[in-house]
C-alpha cells in the first residue's frame, strides 16, 4: 500500500468517531434519488447504472425489514422505533411501486434495441439483472438475447463487449449471466465457454484475462461464471485461488485487486463473492472485525447518504452497490444464486 493511503486512513481514524452500523435508511434515500433520475435519463449506460442503484436499494430495504423483525422479537423496543421503521418500509415499497413501470419500460426498451454495433454487453447485463429483481418475465427477451450473444461471440468461447470490441473474462461472465437468465446456456454459443474460462487461471492463483496479471474482479467473474455453468474446480485449483483471494485483505481491513495496491471498497464484492463461491466456510479466513471497521467507517460518510471508495471522495451508486453487497455476503444476507448473479431477490 502507498504511504499516501496509509496516512489518509490513519488521519481519518484519529479524527473521526467510529461507527458500528450502516444507516440503511439514509442509503435507501440516497439511492431512491438516483432511481428518480435514472428512470428518465437518456444516458447510453443507464441500464447498468440502474442496476448499480437498484441492487443496493433492494438490499437496504431487505436490511430495514431485518431491523423491523429484530425489534419485534426484542423486549427492548418502543412504539416510536417500531412505527418509524414500519413507516420507512412502507414509503420504500410505495416509491418502488411508483418507479417500477418507468424502470421496466426503460430497461426492456434498452435491451431489445437491435443496433448492437452501439450496444454494450455490460449494459445488457445491467438490464437483465435489474429486470430480474423487478420480477419481469425474462422469457420475453430470449430471442433478442440469442441474437445479441450470437453476434458477440469471439470464436474461442469468450464474448466481446460489442461487435467491434475486445473480449475478456468480464464480458464473458456477463454473457453467461444473460444466458442463464434468458434460458440459453444449452445453446451452441456457450459450447467453448467453459474451456475459455478455465484457460484464464493463473499459476499464482486467481484468474487473469487474456494473459494479463491475475485480478480479483476477473477471479470473481470467472468463478461465478463457472459456477453457473456447473464446472467444478479440483482441490489444487481451489487452494491456489483461495490463497490469492485471502491475501487481498490489507492491514486496514479493505481489499485490493492486486498485490501491493491500495484497498478499494468495490473489491469488498469481488473478493468476498469469490470466496463465497469457493465455499461459505472460506469467509471465516477473512478478518471480519477489521473489514467491518473499514466499510462502516471509511466507506460511510458522516450523516449517512450513500457509500464511497474511501474518505475524501463523494459517495456514488457503484461503490454503494459493491460495498453493501460485500457486507451482505460476509453477514450471510445473500444466498448462493444471489452471490453468483449479483442480485437481491
Q: Which regions have little confidence, pLDDT < 50, spanning 5+ residues?
A: none
Q: Briefly note the structural class of the backbone.
A: mainly alpha
The helicity comes to 55-70%
**Main beta sheet: strand number and arrangement?**
none
Series of H and E elements: HHHHHHHHHHHHHH
**What is the top-level CATH class of one domain?**
Mainly Alpha
Shape: globular
Number of helices: 14
Give a count of the beta strands, DSSP E runs of length 2 or more. 0
Organism: Hexamita inflata
Cofactor: Zn(2+)
Pfam families: Prenyltrans
InterPro entries: PGGT1B-like (IPR045089), Prenyltrans (IPR001330), Terpenoid_cyclase/PrenylTrfase (IPR008930)
Provide keyphrases for this structure.
345 residues; mainly alpha; Glycosyltransferase; metal-binding
Q: Can you tell me about this structure?
A:
It holds the Pfam family Prenyltrans. Keywords: Metal-binding, Prenyltransferase, Repeat, Transferase, Zinc. Its cofactor is Zn(2+). The chain is mostly helical and 345 residues long. It has a domain at 200-345: Alpha/alpha barrel (Glycosyltransferase), CATH 1.50.10. 58% of the residues lie in helices and 0% in strands. The protein is built from 14 helices and no strands. Helix 3 runs antiparallel to helix 4 and helix 10 (235-246) packs antiparallel against helix 11. The two termini are 36 Å apart.
Summarize the topology.
Layout: H1 3-15, H2 24-38, H3 46-72, H4 79-112, H5 121-133, H6 142-152, H7 169-181, H8 193-198, H9 216-228, H10 235-246, H11 267-278, H12 288-298, H13 317-330, H14 336-341
